Task: structure prediction
Amino acid sequence: MLSERRLEVLRAIVQDYVGTEEPVGSKALTERHNLQVSPATVRNDMAALEEEGYIAQPHTSAGRVPTDKGYRLFVDKLADVKPLSTPERRAIQNFLEGAVDLDDVVGRTVRLLAQLTRQVAVVQYPSLSRSTVRHVELLALAPARVMLVLITDTGRVEQRLVDCPAPFGETSLADLRARLNSRIVGERFTEVPRLVADLPDSFVAEERGTVSTVLSSLLETLVEETEERLMIGGTANLTRFATDFPLTIRPVLEALEEQVVLLKLLGEAKDSGVTVRIGHENVHEGLTSTSVVSVGYGSGDEAVAKLGVVGPTRMDYPGTMGAVRAVARYVGQILAEN
Result:
């Protein structure tokens, strides 16, 4: 374990390097920070930090920069995540409250996160596997054709056309709609197959074929639409950090194009609390020069999806963590209200 004094030196090095983009020397540290020790002591502390792998010397006769291990300790020892100002919080609320549907919520969230953090923002759509049914609507389009509309508690809407084996009257359709909703509204998607298994048996024989066809379409929707979706924005922000990537930003850009990679990164975020993965903690080779800050969001106590940002390891961690957490909280409130 590092002494508190050496932790203070490490914090100062991280703060200066993030702010200046320049390797940090002992003289600059003693001038900029009230470390209350002599320059010689700071040099000794820096030598110890380097020996233990928390900082490194990128060039001969240069200052020191934090390593992945140094950033990790800095993040783990953060006493406070930087809170957003009142105007920032008000701006987030006003911007997100104007959304008209789930696609708009996700789109606005991506743009907002990219602007706030000046990083690449990634937002996952609410997962159907973690969602509950808000309502099922059945609309007659023709005597033997029905539109099935499935609405989730997160505002996600899925539609499907159903061709029935026989004409189905408005009264029967209304009856099916009522019975279906009474069984599955408020229930998890994973519970729906069990809850509707015996529903056809409660109808007269000549209607059971159509009821079974509608239910089959509903269950297919639950299975097929569980494919996870996400939206990404602010990729151009990476060009501001070209010097932070050892050779080129191309591997990072290529990794960001792979949806499976991004879903895996976000999927590793905990439901509660911000998750930070730094440098080589990201197993994908193209992202070993980046950090990923992510958190779960949802309309209740449990996260139904994740959101986060990807940027260079030289990142304002307290500010980025605060922004990601605040945006997730507001998105959750909007989903709950709508």
User: Anything to note?
Assistant: The two ends are 48 Å apart (CA to CA). The longest strand covers residues 133-142. The mean pLDDT is 87.
